[in-house]
Design brief:
This protein is α+β, with helices and mostly antiparallel strands. It folds into three domains: about 20-130, no CATH class; about 130-170 and about 350-390, no CATH class; about 175-350, von Willebrand factor, type A domain (Rossmann fold, 3-Layer(aba) Sandwich). The protein is about 25% helix and about 25% strand. It has helices at about 20-45, 190-205, 230-235, 250-260, 285-290, 310-325, 335-350; strands at about 5, 10, 110-115, 125-130, 130-140, 155-160, 160-165, 165-170, 175-180, 210-215, 220-225, 265-275, 300-305, 330, 350-355, 370-375, 385, 390. β10 (about 210-215) and β11 form a beta hairpin. α2 packs parallel to α7 and α4 runs parallel beside α5. It is globular, with a radius of gyration of 23 Å.
Length: about 400
């Protein structure tokens, strides 16, 4: 996709829009029954002169559609279909009733489903068990990281009901990370130090991490696709054209969508901004709901806030980070940004990964609140920081 001309160069890519994702999804749903019905007809082969379809040449079902951009999120653009209608990108699998079988090309329930042919040539969908994966940071009463806990020390609650932990690990898994930097006019004098902090965050990362860069003002630009090459990331951060407003919510939503391209389970957004959102089509509530997808990203934010509109801008960053299990920082001096980025890197590298299979059926929709507790001697009080809940829906397999 072509980019607006910035100075004398063209940026390579714009973060894919939710409208395009919704159109692709709708087209796939429309075509999938035709493909599968042709397959079933070819297998039947009962009419004279009909030849059975060759399984090697014709797929059993339509390709799975790309993940929808949001789980139950209201759509911002008026041209998009409203959420929770069949075949729209806003619909989550939890909104669909559970079934043992379904017409070709339609999922039977909220679980990950795979089509399989039986002896009479019809297709059924078999649901696979799915897990909720939490990445948790634990601190003591002095706010020091605690990294010597075991599985029995944790209790996970979903909607106030204790859940059975199915997997517990404590190791530095690779992370898919989006570095999302404010490129509005007010950031002109701050970008050098912010870029330095972002690069130091990358240098402190796992060598198998996948990182991309989005610069945003009143629009958002993908200036570097997933890579672990520090030089490429640094070059992308230097694509500075400080102008325009601050479309923070749009940039975060687009970055969360783009993170779904990665197969890594751990997903992080690192965002730096210096003001209140004044240019997004989406609202704060829509951004929070998008981030609350199942196994969605953790957001770490740095707010370089001035004296104007501090309260609303601060509340927005605290809400976005707090709901996802991250932290919002508000340094009084620009000189502190680099140290904060190192603190974030340390936090990311020292987390527990806890998985559980929800006791509530996937067919039951609605938001699910999560609360995790940890108790262990000799600690008097332990605080677990992780996401506060999710909407049942898409997830990525951890690798």
């Amino acid at each position: 996709m072509f980019m607006p001309r910035l100075g004398t160069t063209h940026r390579r890519n714009r973060v894919p829009t939710r409208v395009a994702a919704a159109l692709c999804f709708a087209i796939t749903i429309a075509l999938s029954p035709l493909v599968v019905s042709q397959k079933a007809a070819g297998q039947a082969g009962s009419a004279p002169g009909n030849q059975p379809a060759n399984p090697a040449q014709q797929p059993a079902s339509a390709p799975a559609p790309s993940p929808p951009p949001a789980q139950g999120q209201p759509q911002a653009a008026p041209t998009q279909p409203p959420p929770n209608q069949p075949g729209t990108a806003g619909q989550t699998p939890a909104d669909q009733p559970a079934q043992n079988s379904a017409p070709a090309g339609q999922p039977t329930s909220g679980d990950q489903s795979q089509p399989a042919a039986n002896d009479n040539g019809t297709f059924t969908f078999k649901a696979e068990a799915r897990e909720v994966v939490l990445h948790a940071t634990v601190v003591d009463e002095r706010n020091h990281l605690v990294m010597n806990l075991d599985k029995p020390d944790f209790t996970v609650y979903e909607n106030d009901k204790p859940q059975q932990i199915s997997s517990f690990k404590q190791q530095d898994f690779p992370v898919a990370m989006g570095i999302v930097i404010d490129n509005s006019g007010s950031m002109r004098e701050k970008r050098d130090q912010v870029n330095k902090a972002a690069i130091n965050l990358v240098r402190s990362s796992n060598p198998d991490d996948e990182v991309f860069v989005v610069n945003f003002n009143d629009e958002y630009y993908l200036d570097q696709d997933f890579t672990s090459d520090v030089k490429k990331l640094q070059a992308a951060l230097e694509h500075v054209e400080t102008r325009g407003g601050t479309a923070l919510y749009d940039a975060i939503i687009a970055s969360a969508d783009y993170l779904m391209k990665s197969k890594l389970s751990r997903k992080v957004i690192f965002v730096v901004t210096d003001g209140e959102d004044d240019a997004s089509q989406s609202s704060l509530e829509q951004a929070v709901q998008r981030l609350a997808q199942e196994n969605g990203p953790v957001v770490y934010s740095i707010g370089l806030l001035g004296d104007e509109k501090v309260r609303r801008a601060r509340r927005a960053l605290e809400t976005i980070s707090g709901r996802t299990g991250g932290i919002a920082f508000f340094p009084p001096s620009l000189d502190e940004v680099d140290q904060i980025s190192r603190t974030i890197a340390h936090d990311i590298r020292n987390q527990y990964t806890i998985s559980y299979r929800p006791s509530t059926p996937r067919s039951v929709g609605g938001y699910r609140a999560i609360h995790v507790e940890a108790h262990a001697r000799p600690y008097k009080k332990l605080t677990v920081r992780t996401r506060s809940g999710y909407y049942p829906g898409q997830e990525s397999a951890m690798r």
